DNA sequence: CTCCTTATTATACGATTGTATAATTAAGCA
DNA sequence: TGCTTAATTATACAATCGTATAATAAGGAG
């Protein structure tokens, strides 16, 4: 009869939502869609399963929020790289490229996380919108950096160049993330910079090396 | 009492396995992992669910076979492109690149299919092996084509160049497949060829246009 | 201190999952 | 033709899924 009911603390709506989103992204990254069940998500977020639906209308609703949060994080990570760089357009571009080709952006779990959302993105119009906006926003940022280079001001050719450079980044991000053992340390970054330099026919400076142990999850 | 048992025909093991693999790939491409249930797969293959385990030890076993079949198809599609091309090394390379950047290789469902397997690949050692072998095989093929170009015989630099060119192809394949409306007809192919031409510092001829309506699913 | 709101836990429910097994029947062989 | 085998269907089962609802208690208001 002595019922042991789990003790708990009340938290703000914002904290609970963030915890649930973080838990969902972690599980999705580690084990794919099948691992991110409502019970597993709630468990990792430190609550019981029933509470999820107190903060999200449905699991799909939580999935949408998690996807939006992921895309937000990825774009902000890239943008931060250019702001901390110098004023030289070539250096800014190099920093922008480099940050995408090393951890935590270039990472196997990140790639798998992104891949796991693809099918949701196809069906859900809201997620599709976020996907397109994120991709085009990233590419526009790249195009702006390219147009800032000397002699690359023409928008029409800059568009084609930004698509090509974006492809180099995405392709290397994919391969470096999924097959990390196939590349030497820093090789992906180096190849990416020289390829983009060749595409743009513009020399690029070597960006500063990654901070050794700045980000520990 | 008059039991209406579904009529059936006995088929060869090979035919049944192929039908099951094809059905699994179709469902995986259309609706992702959650859509490819054993019942749905059996239904599309024209049999009842119980029979799956007569030809595959488990669903994971079928998944493995389906992945191997997919990778096999993708590599053979790419290899076929170079064999039908002329003897000119640059033309062969251009044909190899072009076939990867237009349907049926560059296709949204194909990308989602590939992405859906990523988490399986991570866990299953057999699938991981197939994945690495396919990727490295494709890249080796690309490297061989590059080394055949005049003045590109050095293996060390050809390796870096093939990684870069492969990234261009993969990135454009990804973006063209997932965001087909963001590109004009033939634009992806054109951008890919000129980017690779710039990376290799070698002019590439325009490959023959895709046959208009050769492949109708 | 007491009451009241509601965040939270606990439990239940129907649907669906992969798997296992029994019941049938198609088709080759004597 | 009749027999035999195993390919195939049909059914059952435990586990787990997302969701819904009732019971409980945390924490601020008065």
Automatic annotation (TrEMBL), chains A, B:
Ranges for domain HTH tetR-type: 14-74
Q: Which SUPFAM superfamilies does the protein's record reference?
A: Homeodomain-like, Tetracyclin repressor-like, C-terminal domain
Question: Which superkingdom, per the lineage?
Answer: Bacteria
Keyword field: DNA-binding, Repressor, Transcription, Transcription regulation
Which InterPro entries does UniProt cross-reference here? Answer: BetI_C, DNA-bd_HTH_TetR-type_CS, Homeodomain-like_sf, HTH-type_TetR-like_transc_reg, HTH_TetR, Tet_transcr_reg_TetR-rel_C_sf
Please verify whether the record's keywords include Transcription: yes
Question: Where are its TM segments located?
Answer: none
- GO molecular function: any one? transcription cis-regulatory region binding
- The DNA-binding region ranges are 37-56
Q: Which PANTHER family does this chain map to?
A: HTH-TYPE TRANSCRIPTIONAL REGULATOR BETI, HTH-TYPE TRANSCRIPTIONAL REGULATOR RUTR
Protein's recorded name: TetR family transcriptional regulator
Native source organism of the sequence:
Pseudotabrizicola alkalilacus
């Amino acid at each position: 009869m002595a019922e042991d009911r789990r003790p708990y603390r009340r938290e703000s709506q914002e904290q609970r939502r963030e915890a649930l989103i973080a838990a969902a992204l972690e599980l999705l990254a580690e084990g794919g869609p099948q691992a991110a069940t409502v019970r597993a998500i709630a468990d990792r977020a430190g609550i019981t399963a029933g509470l999820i639906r107190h903060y999200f209308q449905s699991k799909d609703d939580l999935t949408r929020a998690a996807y939006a949060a992921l895309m937000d994080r990825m774009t902000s990570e890239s943008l931060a790289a250019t702001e901390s760089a110098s004023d030289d357009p070539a250096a800014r571009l190099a920093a922008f490229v480099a940050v995408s080709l090393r951890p935590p952006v270039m990472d196997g779990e990140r790639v798998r996380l992104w891949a796991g959302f693809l099918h949701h993105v196809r069906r859900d119009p809201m997620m599709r919108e976020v996907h397109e906006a994120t991709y085009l926003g990233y590419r526009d940022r790249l195009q702006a950096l390219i147009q800032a280079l000397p002699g690359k001001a023409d928008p029409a050719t800059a568009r084609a160049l930004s698509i090509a450079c974006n492809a180099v980044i995405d392709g290397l991000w994919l391969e470096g993330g999924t097959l990390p053992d196939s590349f030497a340390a820093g090789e992906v970054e180096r190849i990416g910079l020289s390829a983009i330099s060749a595409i743009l026919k513009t020399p690029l400076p070597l960006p500063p090396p990654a901070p050794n142990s700045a980000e520990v999850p």
